[in-house]
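Notebook B, p. 112. Complex prediction, attempt 2.
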Amino acid sequence: MEVESPPSTTSLIQAGEYLIVQKIDGEQSRIVRFTPKQKILIEKLKFTSDSAFGKPHGLFEVSNNQCFPMSVDRLIEELQLQEAPVATTLLDSEVVLSEIVEASDPRVVIAPSALKLEPEQKRQKLEMDAVLEMKKQGVSGQEVVAKLVEGSASFQTRTVFSQSKYIKRKAKKHSDRVLILRPTIRLLAKAYYLKDPDRLAMLRADQLALILQMAGVHHGKNVLVFEQTLGLITSAVMERLGGKGACVHFHRGAVAQSIPCVHSMNYNESTLSTFLPVRIKCLLAGKQLPYENNRKACNEEEENGDKIKEVKCEENVEDQDLEALARRNDRLDRERRGLEMTFEGKAHALIIGSRTVDPVNVLELVYPTLAPSASIVIYSPHQNTLVSCYDWLSKRQTINLVLTDQMCRVMQVLPDRTHPLMAQHVAGGHVLSGIKVVDQ
Amino acid sequence: MTLAPTEPSFLAYNERIQEGDTVIVYVTYGQMVPTVVKRGQTLMMKYGALRHEFIIGKKWGQRLSATAGYVYILRPSSDLWTRSLPRRTQILYTADCALILSLLDAKPGSVICESGTGSGSLSHAIALTVAPNGHLYTHDIDETRTSKVLEEFKTHGLSSVTTAVVRNVCTSGFHVENDADGVFLDVPAPWEAIQFAAKSISRKRGGRLVSFSPCLEQVQRACLAMSAAGFISIETIELVPEQKKIVNQHRQTLEEFEEIGDAYPKERKRNAEGEVKEDSRVSTAIVFPYSQPTHTGYLTHATLLPVLE
């Protein structure tokens, strides 16, 4: 049995690798292919890719357009410093807690500054130019925040909670700590979702997780995937197969494209071997079609195409073309196997993650030849699309049909200040799942 | 009588059902019975009796007649097992299991520690995901729970990827040290186990921690402990699934309402010639059941980075 060994995460950052870059407490994360001499930009922070090569994945400190590995202990110390105003008062107040009369908790006194309605700029002595100059000189974000606190006229009059909030806000803005990590499905899903949910059909990470679980994707399964989610579903399925089984991916045009999530996972050969791209054209035709272009003669899909002719062809083409030919033959072979899975009852699961295509159209083509007991999972940002799928499936033999929606929200967790975030990304879709059965 | 040539398994199965396979017998929506197929036995359920002899050799997903109705025999999956398993404790349902797997970055080859075992709902989900070359170490303080789940793993062909340990992780730590890719905690005092979770995670590879707690007070203490133990990117999320039902929506005109009220006829109306009148009903989704779980637990997840040499 061919299995994939757990990818070693001990290796160092290499040129050409896809990586996830995010600021600590940052609002976005980026997927970047690190090529030599590249400028990596993340939320106004800039550094050269070269400074990361040869270093282990993890936490970095950016200064003067360079990044340097940084210990987590130092970061945690800094984070605790942001909580310092509250933490110290908490200690003080605990001692006298029993004596405190109602409303005399020093932490909740209304700050006089709240009553003055001055714009914040006026209350800050430190000019913006000075801040920029400090950054140019390579002063750390930590020090900039300290200077800002010093320069703030209102800081001392704030409540301790407000002080902590102020420090946190400034620290977030001026943070020069970045994480450079190997991509995982979870990180990719989040990065693309935050960047442009619409291109991802609003597919949230928690719903992607649900799709995989409802489809029962695991080692050795054969899964059919039609998706318009930048390859995210395909890539997640491939990872869960772990080198055995099949992920049949239906795509437009001659080759699978617009699937950055598959490319950026740095998959090894074993995982890539389960990727079986099939042209939609072939799916529509119900059989494999030859490629239509001038080199058609060289590789008809029929094996009986006489060998002599083929050899002649190969002699005429350059090495480059030979390579292209090998690639194409590999594609044709994968496609043949993919079509076999699709039309010969070998698929154990069907996942549709649609943005613009009507899932019923896909169902009409592949549902009849799904293996009995196969799971069907359909995701759409539009509920009414799934209602039509439900109608279609319930007229065939599909049982255990469930339509779900889910809310997923992030909480702010701080001592005495825990609550859901005030606003967050909520765009998402719906998931319909069911199981195909047969009469006999 | 011959035994199946391969070990019956949730992972690998033949097209047809063999003796020793675990089958999920689907009776009605919401009623599924898992059963291990064995000659001579009979399953009793709502639709009467079903002899196991009858199941052997049938295709997965096939409809079978019992004495008083028919049922479907389904291939086991993580989700179906969660829906039908014998419950010994409160269990984690599919929505939470799915998100936990994703937050743990679980995949084939991962080494995952879990505590507690409970009824083994999440344990099955993890075992199926990390197979065939990963491993699940599941810990519980109650010996009856670990032995029960071990028995199930054996029946389900998951023995080779699982180990169940009787142990209190809050005081004695995990069975594995410096080797796990992920740790999942569902314990009353997670903050006590977090330092051990950090020890359990591979120093070279780093790893992920996910903690499930119903109460915010537990979450607050857990977050502080995570930060103290060196975890970063700590985030707490709340997941609330909502199930829907597809119904026919009545769209009455004011005239119809005036004439017949809101008791809309179930049968399609026919006109004088006996033709079905244009159906004014459309399929639409409503929230159903009317009462649903609105809280299970908060999921707090965090990363432990590899240690720099």
